Amino acid sequence: MSELIQLGAVNERPRAPRPEELELKFSPLAIDELNALKTHYPNEKACILPGLWIAQREYGGYLSAPAIAEVAHRLSRSYAEVEGVATFYSMYNTAHSVGKHMIEVCTCLSCHMCGAYRIADHLKEKLGIDFGETTPDGLFTLHEVECLNACDRAPLLQIGDQYHGPVDGAYVDRLLDEIKSQDSTVVQLADSIVKVHLQHGKS
Ligand code: FES
């Protein structure tokens, strides 16, 4: 096996639930939203992306195998097709369950030049976790992300649907204290995106 192939991490995926294991957890509101979205598009396949956002909200921020299976079931698609879409886009949380608050640290060029890795190291030390990990109390998940398209605010963080920047260590400390007591920003972000789809999804 070539060295390049060996460098890649194994992407273990959870097993798809069998039909008899399927448990449907969408709330009545979520079912209404999905039905409304189906009318915005020419077919159910086109509803996979907003359907996944509904699932990400309904399942607490994480697209587990049962969450993906429910979207597939409700849109009459195969599990493999919906999982393929969900795992293609990094904004869907499919790799592991996430904390209440996802802290996304941009480390692209402008943010890098303005000290993004100093901020990242500060966060890692303060939270005791690395990128891609969640604190043991389930409050925070830390992710490294590509350019968030607000380079004039570098170094920049995204938490839920809010941008924070430019940030320094003191700003980060205040921010962590403030958001600890807030509702899940991960779920709030998914809900905001569902609402945008409902308002603007009509073709
Ligand atoms: S480089 Fe960080 S927002 Fe563009």
Multimeric organization: single chain
Q: In the CATH classification, which architecture of the largest domain applies?
A: Orthogonal Bundle
Largest sheet report: 5 strands, mixed
What's the CATH H-level superfamily name of the largest domain? NADH-quinone oxidoreductase subunit E
Secondary structure tally: strands: 5
Order of helices and strands: HHHHHEHHEEEEHH
Overall CATH class of the largest domain? Mainly Alpha
Detail the poorly predicted runs: none
Molecular structure report:
The structure is a single chain. With 203 residues, the chain is α+β, with helices and mostly antiparallel strands. It folds into two domains: 83 residues, Arc Repressor Mutant, subunit A (Orthogonal Bundle), CATH 1.10.10; 82 residues, 3-Layer(aba) Sandwich (Glutaredoxin), CATH 3.40.30. Helix content is 45%, strand content 10%. The protein is built from nine helices and five strands. A five-stranded mixed sheet has the order 2-3-1-4-5, covered by helices on one side. A hairpin with a 5-residue loop joins strand 2 and strand 3. Helix 2 runs antiparallel to helix 3, helix 3 crosses helix 4 and helix 3 packs antiparallel against helix 9. The protein is elongated. The relative contact order is 0.14. The structure holds FE2/S2 (inorganic) cluster. FE2/S2 (inorganic) cluster (FES) binds next to helix 6.
